[in-house]
Design brief:
Radius of gyration of chain A: 13 Å
Distance between the termini of chain A: 41 Å
Strand content of chain A: over 45%
Order of helices and strands of chain A: EEEEEEEEEEEE
Strand content of chain B: over 45%
Distance between the termini of chain B: 34 Å
Shape of chain B: globular
Helix content of chain B: under 10%
Mean pLDDT of chain A: 92
Low-confidence stretches of chain B: none
Oligomer: heterodimer
Number of helices of chain B: 0
Largest interface: A-B, 23 and 27 residues
Radius of gyration of chain B: 13 Å
Low-confidence stretches of chain A: none
Shape of chain A: globular
Number of helices of chain A: 0
Order of helices and strands of chain B: EEEEEEEEEEE
Largest sheet of chain A: 6 strands, mixed
Largest sheet of chain B: 7 strands, mixed
Chain lengths: 114, 112
């Protein structure tokens, strides 16, 4: 079984500053990894995904994430955030055999301050 | 041209009632899901259907019964609603299993 830990429940950042949201996973098999964003009172939107290949994955809205197999991490980064990035961010994992089952982390609330 | 749609968006009801939430996707995907998001924002899969067949059932009380009349629809019926069923329920779909899931806007269920 897989599990996901998002190490920070809340991250406050000033506008135009860089941000990193941390995600670690646990699995005994190969995995696919995802980041989703949930804006207030909305559904989840896929930001980016790692399936295979290059460990640096670029997503929408200027976000990127790096898969680190040795550290079992998939941290999300953005070099310069905007007020509109304020949202809840979820890291998720599925194993490559049973990829229907997506296991989510607890979420990180990113708040951008002017 | 909404990809995954759910109705209703909000549902307020009394304990003991039976209610349904509908989900439709127009993406041509073959797999659909129901997820529950609790008050702490934790998301957990409940069910998954592939080509109208149930493939995941995650220890959900049998008061919850999903029904998939065709590949584009996955409805969720809940009998004898309890206070603990209050949550946001998200429908999602995907093609095969690799591509990431597309989520609907959610249905906020409040049981009084």
């Amino acid at each position: 079984a897989q599990s996901v830990t998002q190490l920070d429940s809340q991250v406050p950042v000033f506008e135009e500053a860089p941000v990193e949201l941390r995600c670690n996973y646990s699995s005994s098999v190969s995995v696919y990894l995802f980041w989703y964003v949930q804006y207030p009172n909305q559904g989840l939107q896929l930001l980016l995904k790692y399936l295979s290949g290059s460990t640096l994955v670029k997503g929408i809205n200027g976000f990127e994430a790096e898969f680190n197999k040795s550290q079992t991490s998939f941290h999300l980064r953005k070099p310069s955030v905007h007020i509109s990035d304020t949202a809840e961010y979820f890291c998720a994992v599925s194993d490559v055999q049973g990829a229907q089952k997506l296991v989510f982390g607890q979420g990180t609330r990113l708040t951008i301050n002017p | 041209d909404t990809a995954v749609s759910q109705t209703p968006k909000y549902l307020v009801t009394q304990m003991g009632n039976d209610k349904s939430i509908k989900c439709e996707q127009n993406l041509g995907h073959d797999t659909m899901y129901w997820y529950k998001q609790d008050s702490k924002k934790f998301l957990k899969i409940m069910f998954s259907y592939n080509n109208k067949e149930l493939i995941i059932n995650e220890t959900v009380p049998n008061r919850f019964s999903p029904k998939s009349p065709d590949k584009a629809h996955l409805n969720l019926h809940i009998n004898s609603l309890e206070l603990g069923d209050s949550a946001v329920y998200f429908c999602a779909s995907s093609q095969a299993t690799r591509g990431g899931k597309f989520f609907g806007p959610g249905t906020r269920l409040t049981v009084l």
